[in-house]
């Protein structure tokens, strides 16, 4: 009798859970939206707005200068105003627009001032290092990840934050984690089954649909609300899709709307298992460690893949590292050398709902995923740009820069020449030599 | 998460820094955030390596000299927040009626002088000038040429004919330079 009652209770508890999961998974599979997530995001915006006003009020009371006259909170503002000359000549010319001939002078002790000022300016505020840190927000989003100076401003805000904490950790986190596990299991099983199908049109079509389904389910695990723009420019077979890179989640976001061939290094363990499942289902490009170093081999395999219009477009993040979604950094020229059609994509996350940037020097992948699972949502815009091809008189580097500028412009991101690898490596001395050469040209011979 | 402990700056400290440097409360808070993000080891001090990690500074031909001018006064290998802000205060614009000494013309010149004064003896010798010149031009101008430049520069500035440039002579040589403008950074409020 007791057993029976227990079973009934468990059954009753399971019914809403199962229906909840199916309500999320089934529409996800077919790319449908009920509108729950968009409503949820709307409500969040209202709550943040209220919080912002409370902060403004609280900081006025405590007499701090956080709020400017127009009511916006200014911590995200730049610290200093810099003229950003492109080179030493422009820096010396200042506002005068003098030509290099006019600027030519004998060395003066005061020449040092220019280098001193620009150097100290870069200490206070530089273009590069802040791209590798979490972006600062103009208002607090009730997560502690950014703007840590906004705590304990008022009791009501603290209560709100605690409520948010409970929702994020006790409801969203377990729900999203189980959903992710379901999603990954589904993908492993289904991809393995597809692997047994004979190669051909049927296999490709099935893979296409299954892949979309899988990525959409994974997207729901993060409450992803994605707006895809200009879908007519989606990448097609025989091309390469390049995008700016913020996080490993980029692939899930893009994969929810189109299928791509992945390219990367062969991994061991769990990721290796996933890779093998992927490869059985479709042709992806995995390199072993030694091959990866051989640039020629890499570009040969990319080329042969890209030349086959029946194969999926390759997805590449030419920055080679995650940037905090405020800028686009140097594109590695590799994929721009092989004369394939390039389909540029700009991805811009809305930082208010959670910072999508993976700061890999600070968080491991698991820590990062937990941060994502406990963020409010993942709201982002994806713009497909018209396909681009290399012009005859253009070098691979110039072409890469042209694509980068287009992406930066569309995504509202800053277009930087710096190499994202500076996150881990020292800057190349050629940049310094360039400045020395430029300065030398300003000096008269004696 | 993570570095919450390093984010504590007491109100009294802010007030003290505000009085000595002339930076506003808000500026100090933001400078402190910057200080913490440069402080990769999270110990409340900046080392030379922390500075060199800024690519724009690392490619500055005189990046090493700038770092030297920062650390010059402390005589050790680390810089705390107060020392850091104090040096930065040198670059505040000079405004009429502001009674702050840290950003005076003299302090700005002292910073520039320190960049030339490699061995901290308060004199610029021909060797020191040559060294700094080499850093500025790299391999683009011959050593011989640079030697001529150094000789001429010292000769022009050296009033007491000791072959060295003292700080007073340096000040005199820079008399006609708009140091207030050239050594000022536009800090936002």
UniProtKB/TrEMBL annotation, chain B:
It is found in: Cell membrane; Cytoplasm; Nucleus. It comes from Saccoglossus kowalevskii (Acorn worm). The keyword Protein transport applies. InterPro entries: Calcineurin_B_homologous, EF-hand-dom_pair, EF_Hand_1_Ca_BS, EF_hand_dom. It comes from the Eukaryota. This is Calcineurin B homologous protein 1-like. PROSITE patterns: EF_HAND_1, EF_HAND_2. It holds the Pfam family EF-hand_7. Its main location: membrane. Keywords: Calcium, Cell membrane, Cytoplasm, Lipoprotein, Membrane, Metal-binding, Myristate, Nucleus, Phosphoprotein, Protein transport, Repeat, Transport. The keyword Calcium applies.
């Amino acid at each position: 009798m007791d057993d029976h009652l227990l079973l009934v209770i468990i059954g009753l508890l399971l019914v809403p859970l199962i229906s909840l999961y199916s309500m999320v998974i089934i529409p996800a599979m077919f790319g449908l939206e009920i509108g729950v997530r968009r409503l949820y995001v709307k409500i969040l915006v209202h709550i943040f707005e209220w919080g912002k006003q409370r902060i403004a009020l609280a900081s006025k009371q405590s007499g701090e200068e956080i709020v400017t006259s127009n009511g916006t909170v200014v911590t995200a503002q730049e610290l200093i105003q810099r003229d950003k000359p492109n080179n030493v000549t422009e820096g010396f010319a200042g506002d005068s627009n003098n030509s290099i001939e006019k600027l030519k002078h004998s060395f003066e002790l005061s020449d040092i001032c220019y280098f001193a000022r620009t150097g100290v300016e870069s200490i206070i505020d530089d273009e590069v290092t802040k791209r590798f840190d979490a972006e600062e927000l103009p208002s607090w989003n009730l997560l502690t990840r950014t703007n840590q100076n906004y705590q304990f401003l008022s009791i009501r805000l603290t209560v709100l934050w605690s409520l948010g904490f409970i929702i994020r950790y006790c409801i969203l986190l377990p729900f999203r984690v189980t959903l992710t596990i379901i999603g990954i299991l589904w993908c492993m099983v289904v991809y393995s089954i597809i692997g047994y199908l004979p190669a051909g049109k049927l296999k490709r079509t099935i893979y296409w649909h299954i892949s979309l389904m899988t990525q959409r389910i994974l997207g729901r695990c993060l409450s992803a609300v994605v707006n895809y723009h200009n879908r007519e420019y989606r990448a097609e077979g025989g091309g390469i899709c390049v995008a700016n890179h913020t996080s490993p989640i980029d692939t899930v976001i893009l994969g929810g709307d189109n299928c791509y061939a992945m390219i990367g290094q062969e991994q061991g363990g769990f990721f290796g298992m996933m890779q093998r499942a992927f490869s059985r289902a479709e042709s992806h490009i995995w390199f072993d460690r030694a091959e990866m170093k051989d640039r020629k081999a890499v570009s040969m395999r990319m080329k042969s893949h890209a030349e086959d219009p029946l194969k999926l477009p390759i997805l590449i993040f030419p920055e080679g590292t995650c940037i905090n979604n405020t800028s686009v950094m140097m594109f590695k020229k590799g994929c721009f050398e092989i004369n394939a059609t390039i389909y540029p994509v700009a991805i811009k996350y809305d930082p208010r709902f959670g910072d999508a940037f993976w700061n890999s020097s600070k968080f491991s992948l698991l820590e990062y995923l937990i941060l994502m699972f406990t963020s409010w949502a993942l709201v982002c815009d994806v713009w497909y740009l018209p396909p681009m091809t290399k012009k005859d008189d253009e070098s691979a580097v110039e072409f890469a820069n042209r694509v980068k500028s287009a992406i930066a412009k569309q995504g509202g991101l800053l277009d930087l020449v710096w190499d994202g690898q500076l996150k881990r490596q020292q800057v190349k001395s050629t940049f310094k030599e360039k400045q020395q050469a430029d300065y030398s040209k300003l000096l008269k011979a004696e | 998460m993570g570095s919450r402990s390093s984010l504590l700056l007491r109100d009294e400290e802010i007030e003290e820094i505000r009085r000595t440097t002339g930076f506003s409360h808000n500026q100090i808070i933001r400078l402190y955030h910057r200080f913490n993000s440069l402080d990769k080891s999270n110990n409340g001090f900046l080392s030379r390596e922390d500075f060199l990690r800024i690519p724009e500074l690392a490619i500055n031909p005189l990046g090493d000299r700038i770092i030297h001018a920062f650390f010059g006064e402390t005589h050790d290998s680390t810089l705390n927040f107060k020392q850091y802000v104090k040096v930065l205060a040198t670059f505040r614009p000079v405004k009429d009626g502001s009674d702050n000494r840290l950003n005076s013309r003299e302090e700005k010149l002292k910073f520039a002088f320190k960049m030339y004064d490699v061995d901290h003896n308060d004199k610029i010798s021909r060797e020191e000038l040559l060294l700094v010149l080499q850093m500025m031009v790299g391999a683009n101008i011959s050593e011989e040429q640079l030697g001529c430049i150094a000789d001429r520069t010292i000769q022009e500035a050296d009033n007491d004919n000791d072959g060295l440039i003292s700080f007073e002579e340096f000040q005199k040589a820079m008399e006609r330079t708009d140091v207030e403008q050239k050594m000022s950074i536009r800090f936002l409020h």
